[in-house]
Write a structure and sequence with these properties.
This protein is an alpha/beta fold. The chain is 46% helix and 15% strand. It is built from ten helices and nine strands. A nine-stranded mixed sheet has the order 1-8-6-7-5-2-3-4-9, sandwiched between helices. It is elongated, with a radius of gyration of 25 Å. It binds uridine-5'-diphosphate (UDP) and magnesium ion. The site of uridine-5'-diphosphate (UDP) has 16 residues, from strand 2 and helix 3.
């Protein structure tokens, strides 16, 4: 089951809608967005579980009859799209959005968020690692006034030790750099229509939704759930892509690495001033000034390394500026079903 925790709800405490005299809130129209990249192996099971959850919520009168599921096919090369088409033919609540090519998980999520109708939209991965039942808790937190509800994993014992420790270090680093991020939350979340509309104002191509959504600042809550292993198929985030995503998270939100370079540069300059003073002193005040190999080559390596590192970090940001100034569309839709 799930626990609900309210994050910034104090902000709206004065206008709290929770009062005995009030009538129950009207049902909401729910959209569920599922990005899919080569997910033919899990898709039938995911569709079955999500569709039965949807039917149950409809039966309980929590969501409207026109609530639906939107599978976003992110340029899959397997049978994912034909499966989605079949699903949408067999069940009027299931729909498909086919992107013209592989645009990446974040852009696929965005395409879904911007095209799925609904008062609230939940995004969830296709592989059933995130427990769909937590959507019940998300809806209840939304009824209590949260515009954004984050799905948070209760424990990471299904992850490898490597993934668990790197993820923890990474969340700490982001927090230290001033990025407001919810720990142990991936992209499993509910957003209200107002939050999605606000998200449209963020036009960046270097998308890191986990950093942007908390920045919207609307009342939010978290729902914790147990994360399972991937139901079938393999991870679409190999180490290389995970690293790229991690760098994206830092450089899209924080200029701290650039500042760190400045500090490092100042420190090295100070040290080299001291070095120069020391060399001069040896040269002028003593007679043991041997033409030293170490003192010549070491600084060359050290300063050379520092400069390359600094250039690399600056290059990372310049590349960002380059991508952002192009203002390319973040995804293109080929077809819908
Ligand atoms: N995904 C996507 N486009 C991509 C890579 C992944 O839409 O280029 C989807 C994928 O189908 C899945 C979700 O993003 O629904 C998360 O991917 P995955 O489960 O492979 O990542 P992991 O859980 O291993 O980090
Ligand atoms: Mg997964």
């Amino acid at each position: 089951m799930f626990d609900v925790t309210y994050r910034q709800m104090q902000a709206c405490a004065g206008t709290s809608t929770v009062s005995k005299a009030q009538p129950p809130r009207p049902m909401v129209r729910l959209g569920i967005v599922i990005p899919c990249y080569n997910e033919e192996e899990v898709l039938p099971e995911t569709a079955r579980r999500i569709a039965s959850l949807l039917a149950d919520l409809q039966q309980r009168g929590e969501i409207t009859e026109d609530s639906g599921v939107y599978f976003v096919d992110d340029g899959s090369r397997d049978r994912t799209w034909s499966l989605i088409e079949e699903l949408s033919r067999s069940n009027p609540s299931l729909h498909g959005i086919k992107l013209s090519r592989n645009c990446g998980h974040q852009n696929a999520l965005l395409a879904g968020l911007f095209h799925a109708p609904g008062d609230v939209v939940v995004t969830i991965d296709a592989d059933l690692q995130d427990d769909p039942q937590a959507i019940r808790g998300m809806l209840s937190a939304h009824r209590d006034g949260a515009d954004v509800v984050y799905g948070v994993r209760r424990s990471r014992d299904k992850d490898t030790l490597f993934k668990r420790s790197t993820a923890q270090a990474y969340y700490r680093l982001l927090t230290a750099f001033g990025v407001d991020i919810v720990s142990d939350h991936a992209d499993y979340r509910l957003m209200s229509r107002r939050a999605i509309d606000a998200l449209r104002g963020f036009g960046e191509s270097n998308l890191f939704l986990r950093g942007i959504v908390p920045r919207l600042g609307f009342p939010s809550a978290t729902v914790s759930y147990d994360r399972a292993e991937r139901f079938a198929g393999e991870s679409k985030y190999p180490l290389r892509r995970m690293l790229a995503f991690a760098i994206q998270g830092v450089t899209s939100f924080s200029a701290a690495p650039l500042r760190a370079i400045t500090l490092m540069g100042m420190l090295v300059s100070l040290l080299s001033f001291a070095g120069v003073a020391w060399v001069l002193w040896i040269r002028l005040a003593s007679s043991d000034a041997l033409p030293g190999w170490a003192s010549t080559t070491l600084p060359i390596f050290f300063i050379g390394g520092m400069q390359l590192l600094a250039l690399g970090v600056i290059g990372e940001y310049v590349a960002k500026i380059y991508m952002e100034t192009k203002q390319r569309p973040r995804y293109l839709i080929d077809r819908m079903s």
